[in-house]
Each structure stands twice: as structure tokens, then as C-alpha cells.
Design a protein that fits this description.
Elements lengths: L4 E7 L20 H13 L7 E9 L7 H14 L1 E12 L6 H9 L4 E7 L3 H7 L5 H13 L5 E7 L6 H13 L4 E6 L7 H8 L7 H17 L2 E5 L2 E4 L11 H6 L5 E4 L4 E4 L2 E5 L3 H9 L5 E6 L2 H14 L4 E2 H8 L3 H4 L1 H9 L3 E4 L2 E4 L1 H4 L2 H10 L4
Parallel strand pairs: 1-2, 1-9, 2-3, 3-4, 4-5, 5-6
Antiparallel strand pairs: 6-8, 7-8, 10-11, 11-12, 13-15, 14-15
Helix pairs in contact: 1-2, 1-10, 2-3, 6-8, 11-16
Length: 386
Amino acid sequence: MVEPAGVYLHIPFCIRKCPYCDFYSVTDFSLKKAFINSIRKEMKSSPFVDLCFDTIYIGGGTPSTLDAKDLGSLIETAYSGFKFVDDTEITVEINPGTISLKSLKQYRKSGINRLSIGVQSFNALNLGFLGRIHSAKDGSFAVDSAKKAGFENIGIDLIYGIPNQTKKSWLLDLKQAVGVNPEHISCYMLSFEPGTKMEKDRKKGCFKPMTECLTGDLFETTMGFLTSHGYEHYEVSNFARKQGKDTRSFQSRHNLKYWSFTPCLGFGPSAHSFVDSKRWWNYPDVKKYIDKIEAGKSPVCGQEKLSRQQKIIEMIYLGLRTTRGICIDTFDKKFNTDFKKIFKELIFDLEAKGSIKVSDNRCFLTPKGMLFLDSIASLFIAVDIK
């Protein structure tokens, strides 16, 4: 059975740029109308009409700076050009400082059935450091309003590893997150991406980053706390509430595609697409993106055909990110090789250290191994595979 594909729509507008964020966005809304017309044209011109889809993910930027009418027109355009299953997951990212109960009710009517709320923290000092435009109360209000608006699949994002954050203060964030009872919680470690204001401030010595030791402690705290409160840890940064025997019901169906080589079409400035081992991406410039489409040209600025070695590297790294790990049979068939034989010594060593397990035809990291995801993945990638 072929896994349905996904659609990603990148909304590049933000009221204010967060200092840690390296996703493409602008604060000038003067091109909003032209952008909406352009992204609709890009979707209509896509040649991949034979694919079947089961997710639409509207990210950014801050998609909730658009009203329901605009978002609804994008969803309608997608539905008119592509084939979707009946229970398609339609997610929109929202910032607590940009929504109201009224706007959320309108989003629900437009067809959106899942929300990803960028709470980041329930602590005012942390929100100030992160440059967020909303208050600590706004985060709880957003979740409460989403429930009143009829949403039954709500996810919230949190950030840890913030300078001066303690285990105690992080636990308070986690307790408040569980207290508002979302179906999904994503916990991301703060990173200092090149070119961001926060990275520049770090280099200037404006603040002292958290130590790796404390960051690792917070990661372990996160796993222990959320799993003990009914959330399944299904990917290194993601936790979904369990619902009876169907433990996958609240996992992000769209994000799972990125970790399993499932086709995904991206539309909008900076959006990436992946189909049949080919990856391509659009100009990370909203004006250039609009100009290209208005001129009847492609907004694609780069592409690559993944080599066998690149696919092996990605399958290992992406597979180890998930708690299900790498499917050994799939790996062997895809690359005409013998996973257990090739990595026999490495697996033996990592199993002895309690970092990895191999069972039920899967190779996956233990909670301890998750702490060292990058370094363990690099060990696999360093092995010569013929």
C-alpha cells in the first residue's frame, strides 16, 4: 500500500521576527494579497495531480496572521487540484498573540481540524528572552479557546534549554502544559542557528548558553514526566496522548511523512518538496517568489536527486529520530544489503552501552540513546556500505 502524500503551505508573514528562528519570514504585510494569489497559482500549476494526499500543513512564519477566509481559499485550492482522503489532517500553526475565540471558530469552519500552538513557555521571563509577542496567560487562553471553538486535536510547542532555565522551572512548564490537556506536545531544545539575532547575541557574550549536561538532564526530565502523564514519546521531540489501543491517533500525521521518505509537496517561498528521491525548494524571498509566478515561471531555486548514499544517510538519521526506529527489512530491500551484518559490531557495542536495541525487525534508540542521537547516527553513517 502506497502511503498518502502531504501538502505543506508556507506562510511567510510574522508580526515580529523571533530572535531564535531561522525559518523564512518577513514583517512587511504589503505583499499579502499578491502572495495568496501566487501560492494558489503555484498549487494549480503542480504536475503531481495523480498523487493521493491525506495531510495539509500550513506553517510559517505565522499562518494565524491570515484570516479564515484567506486560509480557507488555500485549502479550497488544494482540494480542487489534488485528491484527498476523507479524513485528511489539516493543521495550521498559530501564535497565541494573534488569535481569538471568534477567529478560531472561523478557522474550524474553513476546514482546519488540527492546531499547532506556539506556546513555547508559560514563563514570562522565558517568553521575554525568546522575543515572543504573547504573554504567559495567552498560551493557556489559546488552548482553552481552541477547545471552545470545537478543536479536538490540539498540539502545543515548548522550548527548553533557555539560559537561566532550571529543572524546577522547566517542570513547571511541563505541568502547565499537561494541565491544559493538549493531544500533542512538542518539546524542542533551543538552538542557536547561524544568521539569527540570538546566535549573534551569543557570540557577543550577551548571555551564557545552558550547559550540555543540564540540557541533557532536561531532556530526560521531559521524557520521564510526559510518558508518566499519558503521552507516548514517538519522535525525539514529540509526544502524543494515548487513546486506547490506537496510540498513533494524535501523532502528527504530516510530520511523520518527513521521517519516513513519504512524498510531500511544498508551496510558498522557501518551501521544500520531495517526490521519488528528488528534492527541490523555492526561493526564500516572497517578492522574488511572487515575481516568478506572475511571470509564468517556476519559483524553484534549487533541486537535487538523492544518491544511494544520501538516501542511506537520511534513512538512518530520520529513522533513529523516531522511537519505532529503522525497519530492517525495508532498509535491506531498499538498498539490497544486510543491515544486521553490516552494522553487527556497532550494534553490539551500542547495545552493550544500553543506547540501542534490535528487536521485532527494528533497530531503535533507547531513551538513553536518544540523548546522543546525532553522535550515534554519525557512527552508523561512518560505516562503509557497499
